[in-house]
Amino acid sequence: MASISVSSAELAALEATLLNTSGTVALHDRFRALFTLKALKTQEAVEIIAKGFQDESALLKHELAYCLGQSRKPSVLPYLQDVLANVKEDPMVRHEAAEAMGAIGEMESIHFLEKYLHDDNVSVRETAELAIDRIKWDNSEEGKRHLKETEADDFIPTYTSIDPAPPTSGLLSGAPKPQDLSHASIDALKTKLLDTSLPLFDRYRAMFALRNIGNAEAVDALAAGFADQSALFKHEIAFVFGQLLSPHSIPCLVKVLDDNNESEMVRHEAAEALGGIATPEVLPHLREWLKREDAPRVVRESCQVALDMYEYENSDQFQYANALETVQAAA
Protein backbone atom coordinates (compact mmCIF):
# COMPACT_ATOMS: atom_id res chain seq x y z
CA MET A 1 0.00 0.00 0.00
CA ALA A 2 2.95 2.38 0.51
CA SER A 3 3.34 2.86 -3.24
CA ILE A 4 -0.26 3.96 -3.88
CA SER A 5 -0.40 7.13 -5.93
CA VAL A 6 -3.30 9.51 -5.36
CA SER A 7 -4.11 12.79 -7.02
CA SER A 8 -4.73 15.98 -5.08
CA ALA A 9 -8.40 15.74 -6.05
CA GLU A 10 -8.65 12.19 -4.68
CA LEU A 11 -6.93 13.23 -1.47
CA ALA A 12 -9.36 16.15 -1.12
CA ALA A 13 -12.29 13.77 -1.62
CA LEU A 14 -10.98 11.43 1.07
CA GLU A 15 -10.60 14.41 3.39
CA ALA A 16 -14.16 15.54 2.69
CA THR A 17 -15.42 12.04 3.45
CA LEU A 18 -13.46 11.64 6.68
CA LEU A 19 -14.36 15.10 7.97
CA ASN A 20 -17.97 14.82 6.76
CA THR A 21 -17.88 18.29 5.26
CA SER A 22 -21.23 17.69 3.56
CA GLY A 23 -22.86 16.61 6.82
CA THR A 24 -24.34 13.56 5.08
CA VAL A 25 -21.56 10.96 5.27
CA ALA A 26 -22.38 7.87 7.33
CA LEU A 27 -19.98 7.08 10.16
CA HIS A 28 -18.97 3.72 8.72
CA ASP A 29 -18.03 5.39 5.43
CA ARG A 30 -15.90 7.87 7.35
CA PHE A 31 -14.13 4.92 8.98
CA ARG A 32 -13.39 3.44 5.57
CA ALA A 33 -11.94 6.79 4.47
CA LEU A 34 -9.83 6.88 7.63
CA PHE A 35 -8.30 3.46 7.04
CA THR A 36 -7.73 4.29 3.39
CA LEU A 37 -5.76 7.38 4.47
CA LYS A 38 -3.88 5.26 7.02
CA ALA A 39 -2.86 2.86 4.26
CA LEU A 40 -1.42 5.70 2.14
CA LYS A 41 1.32 6.24 4.76
CA THR A 42 2.07 9.77 3.60
CA GLN A 43 2.56 12.99 5.53
CA GLU A 44 -0.40 14.54 3.70
CA ALA A 45 -2.61 11.64 4.80
CA VAL A 46 -1.72 11.86 8.49
CA GLU A 47 -2.26 15.62 8.48
CA ILE A 48 -5.76 15.05 7.13
CA ILE A 49 -6.38 12.44 9.81
CA ALA A 50 -5.30 14.90 12.52
CA LYS A 51 -7.92 17.42 11.34
CA GLY A 52 -10.62 15.03 12.52
CA PHE A 53 -9.98 15.71 16.22
CA GLN A 54 -12.50 18.54 16.02
CA ASP A 55 -15.30 16.00 15.56
CA GLU A 56 -17.94 15.25 18.20
CA SER A 57 -17.63 11.45 17.99
CA ALA A 58 -15.32 10.02 20.64
CA LEU A 59 -15.29 6.74 18.74
CA LEU A 60 -13.99 8.39 15.58
CA LYS A 61 -11.41 10.48 17.44
CA HIS A 62 -10.16 7.43 19.30
CA GLU A 63 -9.68 5.71 15.94
CA LEU A 64 -7.90 8.77 14.53
CA ALA A 65 -5.38 8.59 17.37
CA TYR A 66 -4.90 4.87 16.79
CA CYS A 67 -4.16 5.41 13.10
CA LEU A 68 -1.70 8.21 13.82
CA GLY A 69 0.17 5.90 16.19
CA GLN A 70 0.27 3.11 13.62
CA SER A 71 1.90 5.53 11.15
CA ARG A 72 4.97 5.66 13.43
CA LYS A 73 5.63 9.17 12.15
CA PRO A 74 7.23 11.40 14.83
CA SER A 75 5.71 14.37 12.98
CA VAL A 76 2.27 13.52 14.42
CA LEU A 77 3.42 13.66 18.05
CA PRO A 78 2.32 17.30 18.57
CA TYR A 79 -1.24 16.38 17.57
CA LEU A 80 -1.27 13.46 20.00
CA GLN A 81 0.23 15.56 22.79
CA ASP A 82 -2.53 18.14 22.36
CA VAL A 83 -5.21 15.45 22.61
CA LEU A 84 -3.66 13.87 25.70
CA ALA A 85 -3.23 17.26 27.38
CA ASN A 86 -6.88 18.21 26.84
CA VAL A 87 -8.56 17.15 30.09
CA LYS A 88 -11.96 18.04 28.59
CA GLU A 89 -11.52 15.37 25.92
CA ASP A 90 -13.14 11.95 26.35
CA PRO A 91 -10.76 9.68 28.33
CA MET A 92 -11.11 7.01 25.65
CA VAL A 93 -9.60 9.45 23.14
CA ARG A 94 -6.90 10.65 25.53
CA HIS A 95 -5.89 7.09 26.36
CA GLU A 96 -5.59 6.26 22.66
CA ALA A 97 -3.40 9.31 22.11
CA ALA A 98 -1.05 8.11 24.86
CA GLU A 99 -1.01 4.61 23.41
CA ALA A 100 -0.23 6.04 19.97
CA MET A 101 2.75 7.90 21.40
CA GLY A 102 3.97 4.56 22.73
CA ALA A 103 3.56 2.98 19.31
CA ILE A 104 5.69 5.69 17.68
CA GLY A 105 8.43 4.84 20.15
CA GLU A 106 10.37 8.10 20.48
CA MET A 107 12.41 8.31 23.69
CA GLU A 108 11.65 12.04 23.83
CA SER A 109 7.99 11.20 24.50
CA ILE A 110 8.74 9.62 27.87
CA HIS A 111 9.09 12.94 29.68
CA PHE A 112 5.74 14.13 28.31
CA LEU A 113 4.00 10.85 29.19
CA GLU A 114 5.35 10.85 32.75
CA LYS A 115 3.12 13.84 33.52
CA TYR A 116 0.09 11.60 33.04
CA LEU A 117 1.12 8.81 35.39
CA HIS A 118 -0.97 10.64 37.99
CA ASP A 119 -3.85 11.73 35.77
CA ASP A 120 -7.33 11.84 37.29
CA ASN A 121 -8.51 9.13 34.89
CA VAL A 122 -7.29 5.61 35.60
CA SER A 123 -7.30 4.51 31.95
CA VAL A 124 -5.11 7.48 31.01
CA ARG A 125 -2.74 6.70 33.91
CA GLU A 126 -2.47 3.05 32.95
CA THR A 127 -1.92 3.86 29.29
CA ALA A 128 0.83 6.36 30.11
CA GLU A 129 2.56 3.60 32.11
CA LEU A 130 2.22 1.15 29.23
CA ALA A 131 3.38 3.64 26.62
CA ILE A 132 6.51 4.48 28.60
CA ASP A 133 7.35 0.80 28.98
CA ARG A 134 6.67 0.19 25.28
CA ILE A 135 9.06 3.00 24.29
CA LYS A 136 11.74 1.67 26.63
CA TRP A 137 11.34 -1.82 25.19
CA ASP A 138 11.51 -0.53 21.60
CA ASN A 139 14.81 1.11 22.45
CA SER A 140 16.20 -1.92 24.32
CA GLU A 141 18.55 -4.44 22.76
CA GLU A 142 15.71 -6.93 22.32
CA GLY A 143 13.47 -4.28 20.79
CA LYS A 144 16.12 -3.08 18.35
CA ARG A 145 16.92 -6.67 17.40
CA HIS A 146 13.26 -7.40 16.77
CA LEU A 147 12.84 -4.24 14.68
CA LYS A 148 15.75 -5.29 12.51
CA GLU A 149 14.13 -8.70 11.98
CA THR A 150 10.83 -7.13 10.96
CA GLU A 151 12.57 -4.94 8.39
CA ALA A 152 13.99 -7.95 6.54
CA ASP A 153 12.57 -8.48 3.04
CA ASP A 154 11.45 -12.02 3.84
CA PHE A 155 9.70 -11.15 7.12
CA ILE A 156 5.95 -11.85 7.03
CA PRO A 157 4.16 -10.69 10.20
CA THR A 158 1.20 -12.61 11.55
CA TYR A 159 -0.28 -9.31 12.74
CA THR A 160 0.72 -5.98 11.25
CA SER A 161 -0.39 -3.80 14.16
CA ILE A 162 1.98 -2.07 16.55
CA ASP A 163 0.55 -3.20 19.86
CA PRO A 164 0.79 -1.62 23.33
CA ALA A 165 3.25 -4.36 24.30
CA PRO A 166 5.12 -7.02 22.35
CA PRO A 167 4.39 -10.70 22.99
CA THR A 168 6.66 -12.48 25.44
CA SER A 169 10.10 -13.10 24.01
CA GLY A 170 9.64 -16.61 22.59
CA LEU A 171 6.49 -15.63 20.71
CA LEU A 172 7.58 -12.31 19.22
CA SER A 173 7.26 -13.58 15.65
CA GLY A 174 6.79 -16.70 13.63
CA ALA A 175 4.48 -19.64 14.23
CA PRO A 176 4.17 -20.96 17.81
CA LYS A 177 6.44 -23.91 18.53
CA PRO A 178 4.91 -27.21 19.67
CA GLN A 179 5.90 -26.52 23.27
CA ASP A 180 4.11 -23.14 23.12
CA LEU A 181 0.86 -24.97 22.44
CA SER A 182 1.12 -27.17 25.50
CA HIS A 183 -1.35 -26.82 28.36
CA ALA A 184 1.51 -25.97 30.73
CA SER A 185 2.74 -23.13 28.51
CA ILE A 186 -0.71 -21.63 28.01
CA ASP A 187 -1.53 -21.97 31.70
CA ALA A 188 1.70 -20.18 32.63
CA LEU A 189 0.80 -17.30 30.32
CA LYS A 190 -2.72 -17.21 31.75
CA THR A 191 -1.30 -16.99 35.25
CA LYS A 192 0.87 -14.06 34.22
CA LEU A 193 -2.05 -12.42 32.39
CA LEU A 194 -4.24 -12.49 35.50
CA ASP A 195 -1.56 -11.60 38.07
CA THR A 196 -2.39 -8.04 39.15
CA SER A 197 0.82 -7.84 41.18
CA LEU A 198 2.84 -7.75 37.94
CA PRO A 199 3.46 -4.58 35.92
CA LEU A 200 0.71 -4.01 33.37
CA PHE A 201 3.29 -4.20 30.57
CA ASP A 202 4.24 -7.75 31.56
CA ARG A 203 0.61 -8.81 31.68
CA TYR A 204 0.07 -7.32 28.23
CA ARG A 205 3.05 -9.25 26.91
CA ALA A 206 1.36 -12.44 28.10
CA MET A 207 -1.86 -11.26 26.46
CA PHE A 208 -0.27 -10.83 23.05
CA ALA A 209 1.62 -14.11 23.42
CA LEU A 210 -1.73 -15.86 23.95
CA ARG A 211 -3.03 -14.07 20.88
CA ASN A 212 -0.13 -15.42 18.84
CA ILE A 213 -0.91 -18.95 20.05
CA GLY A 214 -4.53 -18.38 19.12
CA ASN A 215 -6.09 -21.78 19.77
CA ALA A 216 -9.27 -22.42 21.77
CA GLU A 217 -7.39 -22.88 25.04
CA ALA A 218 -5.60 -19.56 24.50
CA VAL A 219 -8.94 -17.87 23.76
CA ASP A 220 -10.35 -19.25 27.02
CA ALA A 221 -7.30 -17.98 28.88
CA LEU A 222 -7.76 -14.52 27.38
CA ALA A 223 -11.48 -14.54 28.18
CA ALA A 224 -10.64 -15.00 31.85
CA GLY A 225 -9.21 -11.48 31.68
CA PHE A 226 -12.71 -10.01 31.41
CA ALA A 227 -13.01 -10.51 35.18
CA ASP A 228 -10.29 -7.89 35.74
CA GLN A 229 -11.05 -4.56 37.39
CA SER A 230 -9.24 -2.50 34.74
CA ALA A 231 -11.41 -1.27 31.88
CA LEU A 232 -8.25 -0.61 29.88
CA PHE A 233 -7.08 -4.19 30.32
CA LYS A 234 -10.49 -5.61 29.38
CA HIS A 235 -10.81 -3.41 26.32
CA GLU A 236 -7.46 -4.73 25.09
CA ILE A 237 -8.68 -8.31 25.55
CA ALA A 238 -11.64 -7.46 23.30
CA PHE A 239 -9.30 -5.82 20.77
CA VAL A 240 -7.19 -8.99 20.69
CA PHE A 241 -10.32 -11.03 20.00
CA GLY A 242 -10.97 -8.68 17.08
CA GLN A 243 -7.55 -9.61 15.74
CA LEU A 244 -7.96 -13.34 16.33
CA LEU A 245 -11.45 -13.50 14.76
CA SER A 246 -12.13 -16.77 16.54
CA PRO A 247 -15.78 -17.83 16.72
CA HIS A 248 -14.81 -19.46 20.02
CA SER A 249 -14.71 -15.96 21.56
CA ILE A 250 -18.26 -15.00 20.54
CA PRO A 251 -20.04 -16.00 23.78
CA CYS A 252 -17.77 -13.91 26.02
CA LEU A 253 -17.86 -10.94 23.63
CA VAL A 254 -21.66 -11.01 23.49
CA LYS A 255 -21.75 -11.14 27.29
CA VAL A 256 -19.54 -8.04 27.45
CA LEU A 257 -21.58 -6.15 24.85
CA ASP A 258 -24.84 -6.96 26.64
CA ASP A 259 -23.58 -5.85 30.07
CA ASN A 260 -24.92 -2.38 30.83
CA ASN A 261 -22.66 -2.22 33.87
CA GLU A 262 -19.50 -2.72 31.81
CA SER A 263 -17.35 0.21 30.71
CA GLU A 264 -18.33 1.73 27.37
CA MET A 265 -14.70 1.43 26.27
CA VAL A 266 -14.83 -2.34 26.74
CA ARG A 267 -18.27 -2.77 25.19
CA HIS A 268 -17.34 -0.77 22.10
CA GLU A 269 -14.30 -2.95 21.47
CA ALA A 270 -16.41 -6.09 21.93
CA ALA A 271 -18.90 -4.85 19.34
CA GLU A 272 -16.20 -4.22 16.76
CA ALA A 273 -14.63 -7.62 17.43
CA LEU A 274 -18.00 -9.28 16.80
CA GLY A 275 -18.35 -7.35 13.54
CA GLY A 276 -14.99 -8.66 12.41
CA ILE A 277 -15.82 -12.26 13.32
CA ALA A 278 -18.97 -11.80 11.22
CA THR A 279 -20.75 -15.11 11.75
CA PRO A 280 -24.57 -15.15 11.61
CA GLU A 281 -25.07 -15.44 15.36
CA VAL A 282 -23.45 -12.03 16.04
CA LEU A 283 -25.87 -10.13 13.81
CA PRO A 284 -28.91 -9.92 16.14
CA HIS A 285 -26.77 -8.55 18.98
CA LEU A 286 -25.20 -5.82 16.85
CA ARG A 287 -28.56 -4.82 15.43
CA GLU A 288 -30.12 -4.72 18.88
CA TRP A 289 -27.53 -2.38 20.37
CA LEU A 290 -27.59 -0.18 17.29
CA LYS A 291 -31.27 0.54 17.94
CA ARG A 292 -31.62 0.39 21.72
CA GLU A 293 -32.41 3.75 23.30
CA ASP A 294 -30.33 2.93 26.37
CA ALA A 295 -27.21 2.20 24.32
CA PRO A 296 -24.40 4.69 25.04
CA ARG A 297 -23.38 6.64 21.96
CA VAL A 298 -19.98 4.98 21.62
CA VAL A 299 -21.59 1.52 21.83
CA ARG A 300 -24.26 2.43 19.28
CA GLU A 301 -21.71 3.91 16.89
CA SER A 302 -19.44 0.88 17.32
CA CYS A 303 -22.33 -1.37 16.33
CA GLN A 304 -22.88 0.75 13.22
CA VAL A 305 -19.23 0.33 12.25
CA ALA A 306 -19.32 -3.35 13.21
CA LEU A 307 -22.32 -4.00 10.98
CA ASP A 308 -20.44 -2.46 8.07
CA MET A 309 -17.49 -4.73 8.90
CA TYR A 310 -19.90 -7.67 9.01
CA GLU A 311 -21.17 -6.80 5.53
CA TYR A 312 -17.61 -6.46 4.24
CA GLU A 313 -16.51 -9.82 5.69
CA ASN A 314 -19.50 -11.49 4.03
CA SER A 315 -19.04 -9.77 0.66
CA ASP A 316 -16.73 -10.12 -2.31
CA GLN A 317 -15.11 -6.73 -1.65
CA PHE A 318 -11.34 -6.91 -2.05
CA GLN A 319 -10.51 -4.75 0.96
CA TYR A 320 -12.20 -2.85 3.79
CA ALA A 321 -10.19 0.35 3.24
CA ASN A 322 -11.76 0.95 -0.17
CA ALA A 323 -12.70 4.62 0.04
CA LEU A 324 -10.25 5.45 -2.76
CA GLU A 325 -12.25 3.24 -5.12
CA THR A 326 -15.41 5.06 -4.03
CA VAL A 327 -14.03 8.53 -4.69
CA GLN A 328 -12.57 7.39 -8.03
CA ALA A 329 -15.96 6.02 -9.08
CA ALA A 330 -17.62 9.29 -8.10
CA ALA A 331 -15.15 11.41 -10.08
Automatic annotation (TrEMBL):
GO terms for molecular function: deoxyhypusine monooxygenase activity; metal ion binding. InterPro entries: ARM-like, ARM-type_fold, Deoxyhypusine_hydroxylase, PBS_lyase_HEAT. Keywords: Cytoplasm, Hypusine biosynthesis, Iron, Metal-binding, Monooxygenase, Nucleus, Oxidoreductase, Repeat. Its EC number is 1.14.99.29. Binds 2 Fe(2+) ions per subunit. Gene3D superfamilies: Leucine-rich Repeat Variant (1.25.10.10). Its main location: cytoplasm. Fe cation 2 binds at residues 235-236, 268-269. It comes from the Eukaryota. Pfam families: HEAT_2. Its cofactor is Fe(2+). The keyword Nucleus applies. Fe cation 1 binds at residues 62-63, 95-96. It is found in: Cytoplasm; Nucleus. GO terms for cellular component: cytoplasm; nucleus. Pathway: Protein modification; eIF5A hypusination. It catalyses: [eIF5A protein]-deoxyhypusine + AH2 + O2 = [eIF5A protein]-hypusine + A + H2O. Belongs to the deoxyhypusine hydroxylase family. PANTHER family: DEOXYHYPUSINE HYDROXYLASE, PBS LYASE HEAT-LIKE PROTEIN. Catalyzes the hydroxylation of the N(6)-(4-aminobutyl)-L-lysine intermediate to form hypusine, an essential post-translational modification only found in mature eIF-5A factor. HAMAP family: Deoxyhypusine_hydroxylase. This is Deoxyhypusine hydroxylase.
